[in-house]
Design a protein that fits this description.
141 residues; alpha+beta; 5-stranded antiparallel beta sheet
């Protein structure tokens, strides 16, 4: 029983740590700060296309628009959206989200449940799996 309890604690700690890593890789803290802040209308000022080759050797094209908007305090901010593919042309208007203290970290990515709660969902699922496997281990021992 003690082995199963120790296993559960270690597995749950690993799940929480893994959730933090995934959250940082997906830029969760930056996105949550932007979504909790303000929104503004941004104009697309340029579109840079980048051609890459995927793992299967198929060429793909990624468009990365440069968006310019004015903050609530009147500052003009320009940034290149790399988080999500946008189908916009120069002159199009897009809604952006930004934190008041860091408008240069703005995003045009719309808030979604999964992106907002990826850390909690990953940690929760990992802890449930740890509990189930610890229970199975305790039953075997």
């Amino acid at each position: 029983m003690v082995i199963a309890a120790v296993y559960f604690v270690l597995a749950a700690a690993g799940a929480v740590n893994f959730a933090r890593i995934v959250d940082r890789q997906l830029q969760g803290p930056r996105l949550r700060a932007a979504w909790a802040g303000r929104s503004a209308e941004a104009r697309c000022t340029a579109v840079r296309t980048e051609e890459t080759v995927d793992v299967e050797g198929v060429p793909t094209t990624h468009a990365q628009p440069t968006l310019r908007f004015r903050t609530a305090d009147g500052r003009t901010v320009s940034f290149e959206e790399r988080q999500r593919p946008l189908d916009v042309a120069v002159g199009d208007i897009v809604t952006v989200y930004y934190a008041e203290d860091a408008p240069e970290d703005a995003t045009a990515r719309t808030p979604s449940f999964g992106a907002r709660h990826v850390r909690e969902l990953t940690a929760g699922l990992g802890c449930v799996l740890a509990l189930v496997s610890a229970g199975a281990l305790a039953a075997l021992l």
